[in-house]
Amino acid sequence: MILTIDSDAPVAPELTALLRRVMAACLSVEGLPDNCCAYLRLTDDAEIHEINLSQRGVDRATDVLSFPSVNYRRGTARDNLPLLRREYDPEQGGMFLGDIVISLERARAQAAEYGHSPQREIGYLTAHALFHLMGYDHMVDSDRAVMRAREEAAMALVDLKRD
C-alpha cells in the first residue's frame, strides 16, 4: 500500500503513518490487495476552492475532494481487479486508485466543531475519500449508510472511532 502525501507545509511523521494505516484499513475492509496506491494533497481552503471550481464547477471550498482513476460501482472494486491493474503506476509500484485533496483548514475547523482531534478528522476524511475512489457515494440515504459503515469499520481498525 502506497500513499504519496504532498503538502506545502511539513507533515508530521506521525500523521503520515496514521494516514497510511487508514489507507491499509480501507483496503482491508474493501478486500483489495495491498499493492494499491493513491495520491493525497494536503492543502488549505483557498487551493481546494480553486480545484473545486476548476474541476467540478463548484465555487466554494470543501473539506475533501476525490478523483478516482476508475469509476467503480459501490462494492465492485475488488471484483474488477483486471480493470484496476490497468491503472498500475510503475513509479509508485502499485495500482493507482486516484487523487485525494484535503483542506487542513477545514479539517481542523470540523474537528473543533465535532469535538474530536484534528488527526481523527483528517483520518476520517482520508477514509471517506478512499471509499469514494472505490466506488462508494452518499447521495441517497441507503448509499450513505453503506458508505458510513465501511468508513467506520476502517476507522475502528486504526482506533479512530467516534468519541
TrEMBL record:
Its EC number is 3.1.-.-. The gene is ybeY. GO terms for cellular component: cytoplasm. NCBIfam families: rRNA maturation RNase YbeY. Zn(2+) binds at residues 128, 132, 138. Keywords: Cytoplasm, Endonuclease, Hydrolase, Metal-binding, Nuclease, Ribosome biogenesis, rRNA processing, Zinc. It is found in: Cytoplasm. It holds the Pfam family YbeY. Binds 1 zinc ion. It comes from Candidatus Fimadaptatus faecigallinarum. Its cofactor is Zn(2+). Belongs to the endoribonuclease YbeY family. This is Endoribonuclease YbeY. GO terms for biological process: rRNA processing.
